[in-house]
Amino acid sequence: MATIYDVAAAAGVSPKTVSRVLNGEGPVGRKTREAVETAMAGMGYVPSNAARMMRSNRSGLVGVITGAISTADEARPTGLPELVIVQGIQRVMAERGMTMMIADTGDRSDTVPALVETFLRHRVEGLIYVAEYHRKVTLPAIPKDTPVVLANCYDDAGTTCILPDDEQGQRDLVTRLIAAGHRRIAYLTLMSHLDATRLRTAGYRAALEAAGIAHDPALVTCCETTSPEAETRLLHAAVERLMRLPEPPTVLCCGNDKMALKLYGILRSRGTRVPDDVSVAGYDNHRVIAETLYPPLSTIELAYGAMGGRAAELLLSLIRGEAAPDAPVLVRGPVYWRSSVTALGTTLDPSTTSSTTGGHNG
Amino acid sequence: MATIYDVAAAAGVSPKTVSRVLNGEGPVGRKTREAVETAMAGMGYVPSNAARMMRSNRSGLVGVITGAISTADEARPTGLPELVIVQGIQRVMAERGMTMMIADTGDRSDTVPALVETFLRHRVEGLIYVAEYHRKVTLPAIPKDTPVVLANCYDDAGTTCILPDDEQGQRDLVTRLIAAGHRRIAYLTLMSHLDATRLRTAGYRAALEAAGIAHDPALVTCCETTSPEAETRLLHAAVERLMRLPEPPTVLCCGNDKMALKLYGILRSRGTRVPDDVSVAGYDNHRVIAETLYPPLSTIELAYGAMGGRAAELLLSLIRGEAAPDAPVLVRGPVYWRSSVTALGTTLDPSTTSSTTGGHNG
DNA sequence: CGATGACATGACACCGGTGTCATAGTGCGG
DNA sequence: CCGCACTATGACACCGGTGTCATGTCATCG
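^ Those are the sequences you sent over. The predicted structure of the assembly is below.
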């Protein structure tokens, strides 16, 4: 591969002048510049980042650690949103001329130290760790002069992090359901130990409380387990129980869109029509599911893309030496209102359907 | 960040000796090695890949160009399989100690030249281009000493490529349906200009022909368009027409799993039960859909992961200077037999359900 | 007309490793 | 006791750019 010296010789100038042309730096005569540019184009010269980095000490690289790649298309849809975070990061980094190195954990946390080491060898200017769902993580030691941002996760060390606003999200969705006239709102949660479940349940209750609706524990059930079959049975049992209540729910809120997909099949098999007999809402705005289901699913977006974007911006500001925020940055997404939820004929208070919760139609 | 000189000074040896310890190269005395290792650990030394590369000219980097990241979670599920290809590449590259740089096209082909340039600046040892679906591509000029492999696509220049065996795949699936007693097999295709559609239709006909079943053009319809609503209408109309035929089909083969998901909703709305009234088969084994649908979907896997793995292995062999295969490498996946297809009470010829088409149950 | 400063360019060291070659120590057979 | 092969280590140049400083050439101005 051609070097700056080859170009210099071909153009009849010194290597330093070629370097100046490359970087548009310092005064260079018009004719000299043209000669250099011609020579570069003629020999297909591409500068070596490695050589440049040696002296200037700026790699232009950021590292992203994720399980997005290895968890994609596994039965759980969590891997996909994770990927959207990476997309958000990518978008911002590309704008700023940074190159992204992606390392995949292969879904095993013990590979992380090696991945970090690889990044450090390449002298990345910063690191982003992306988790597959809202949770706590523990990172290996990273030199403190390398900025780190956590996306979709947090740690005990208080590392800068971006998190989804699960509490406010569920609250927005339930508030919207209440505005549509629903009073008996069931909540089929994800696994109970998850941060998301804790926060969303709090949001669910806050929305009820704000509307003066008493909380009925019989309406809240965990419907997620690690085994797909057991989960189907769990969901089945929950639906049976809920629909036989003296005052059955008018809407079933699912922990995520995938659960809603499963729920559709179960409701169909027992002859319950959506949304005529009961409404269904999801969580995530997993578009392959939400838009393709029949009827299309009302849900709330987790704004993973925005989370990635914010994480990237935050990392870049840390790289510039700016101060880190002292609290987690919370990101919210809009409600997507589709035909899986019907409006009950109740007076609608416009103040409860604010613009932040009013969604676009996909 | 500490350098090899700092380590050398701390250990009381020369930089070259530190280099030897790093690379486990040449004879180094036990006590010397230990002193160096202690010094390295003590100061958290991490070697600079850039510096190493200057002299040895091996970057240990491979570039992957894809739209996987930006197309993920868009309504079309094509972006997801693409990602599985990347996963396959990643798995093999990680095994071989290569670091993967991923560049995303942002779904616009005009960004590709810039991405290639970025990779060349980093002196990648090879490039893989991953397409979102089986199709022809045109790459920008790439120095011929940099090996390139195309995954899920091909070009006019005869660049080394890995392709899904669409024809054989559809043939395997239809052969399996025939073995289950089906004779009237409808095929709802993807858009007609796609390579996949052309090849799979050929495979569909080949399977019929091999079984001595006459091809009925009334059973084959294109059911994909660019607009989701128009597509739903198209699918609706196709189902109406097919089910009113004098001799209606006993199974509906969909162009992909997403179409099958849509079809489930349409069949439900007209009171047609799956698989009691009609069987349904997909294509892709898009697990989020195929396993979660009720009843679970019979489908055939495109083996995207395997394609990625083969692409990576092929690239590594090209990097080693081995010769390229002179024809596209075709990759097949297994049939996944789930409960969306019922067996009709016909004699089953065991010879038609070979081990290559017999699928696992997910 | 000589001093001054902006412009244009080059010489040279340096970044952090590695390849090549030289050299000092060590055990051993003749 | 000497030459020899082998082990252990270091000196030094080099990879391909960039930062620093020096130098040469004009146009401008007092």
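The longest helix of chain B spans residues 79-95. Chain B has three domains: 4-47, 61-165+305-331, 166-301+335-352.

Shout if you want it in another format.
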